[in-house]
Amino acid sequence: MNAATTFSTQVAEQAVQWLMQMQQGPLNPRQQANWQHWLDAHSEHQRAWEHIQRVNQRLRGMPSPLAHAALNAPKSSSRRQALKLLLILGAGSAATWGLRQQHLIPPLTADYRSPLGQRRKVQLADGSQLQLNTASAVDVQFDGPQRLIHLLEGEILLRASTALQIITAQGIVTTQAAQVNVRQFSDHTQVAVLDGQVEIAPRSYSGLPLTLEKSRLANLTRKGWDTPRLTDANTGAWADGMLVASHMRLADFLDELSRYRHGQLQCDPQVANLLISGSYPLDDSERILDLLQISLPVKVRRFTRYWVSVQARA
Q1: CATH number of 241-312: 3.30.9.30, 3.40.640.10, 3.55.50.30, 3.40.50.300?
Q2: For the whole prediction, is pTM greater than 0.70?
Q3: DSSP 8-state secondary structure symbol assigned to residue 24
Q4: Is 100 helix (H, G, I), strand (E, B) or coil?
Q5: What residues does the FecR protein domain cover (predicted)?
Q6: Considering only CA atoms, which of 164, 178, 176 is closest in space to residue 124?
Q7: Contact 196, 208 (CB under 8 A)
Q8: Distance CA 2, CA 93 (A)
């Protein structure tokens, strides 16, 4: 932890209160003297004040509910709490990792994230390569020999060059040197091994973990895992910007495609079970929808830009 950004939550609260008071108007001479006395009283106060100034300067560039609350409600308790939380997060305190693991901190404050419809590549400090799929977020903690990646939401593809652990809502994925795709669902984690092998186990599991070999995937829950099976053509294809279907139900295909689009993408039950095959570039979802009308007996109705329905062709 950087000594320049270590301070208690109590001092963080004090710094936030002073900042809010200053932003409501100029301090009078007595208030100015009190602030200076507080600032000079301890180096911890100075560290907190310098850090909150930096955090405050960055707020307007953050597309976060925390930033919104911190900027747009100058007299509210929500703004004070938002600033306090941002200050603590920015300090990189040890408590941050635990709070995020308990889902008490929004994924928007994650170390790395990718917006909806976009993908991102990250080179980690140990040489491993991490790719984030659409609407994904992770925290990364490298502390001595311990190397952790916490998947907060979405999907990642990791090319690990050293021993790493991926923590999800349901369990832990342990790998040495492997290529693994991990996707977080609401009630389970899907783990697919593209190269090498990994071990998976529920987070509070005391027995032997399950070893997943290359080209195998399994769903991990809080209580265990299902039977491993072969990966399919679409596993990890997103990392190359592709959506690959091999006799995939149209409803399932559109569910996948909707992950990369804003708004609603609906599938009429009459055409839900039509099968589709092919490789489609994820960066042009409108083109994919147009191609559906050529390859399948369907029509695409665009009520608005954000409300699209795929229906049976008349």
Answers
A1: 3.55.50.30
A2: no
A3: T
A4: helix
A5: 111-199
A6: 164
A7: no
A8: 9
